[in-house]
Amino acid sequence: MKLEIEITEEEIKSAMERKVRTAIADQTNQWNVDTYIKDRVAAHWKEAVDDLVKEYLNDSVRMREKIVKSIEAKLRGQVTALMKVQK
């Protein structure tokens, strides 16, 4: 009796992906993972926020556009309020 099984490369890849997902799930279910993640976020939080602020401030065109839109919206609101009072 001879038994032959053909396994495609895609099937091997899929099986390996399942194993990796299982290993990752096992790792993330450990009791100290949540604490570790919170500690890493806290350690990098200030730097990440500083980088975002610097990027935003350096983009003066975008900043001007936001300021103009904000002023326009406020002025429209004031004009609308005055028009309602006048009626």
Shape by Cα distribution: elongated
Give the overall average pLDDT.
Answer: 91
| Strand fraction | under 5%
Number of helices, counting only DSSP H or I runs of 4 residues or more: 3
Count the strands? 0
Largest sheet, if any? none
Terminal Cα span: 98 Å
Order of helices and strands: HHH
Uncertain stretches: none
Q: What is the CA-atom radius of gyration, in angstroms?
A: 29 Å
Structural class: mainly alpha
Helix content: over 70%
Looking at this protein, list some descriptive labels.
87 residues; mainly alpha; 84% helix
Please explain how this structure is put together.
The protein is mostly helical. The chain contains 3 helices and no strands. The longest helix is centred in the last third of the chain and has 27 residues, at 60-86. The radius of gyration is 29 Å and the shape is elongated. The chain starts with 8 loop residues before the first helix and ends with a helix. The model has no long low-confidence stretch (mean pLDDT 91).
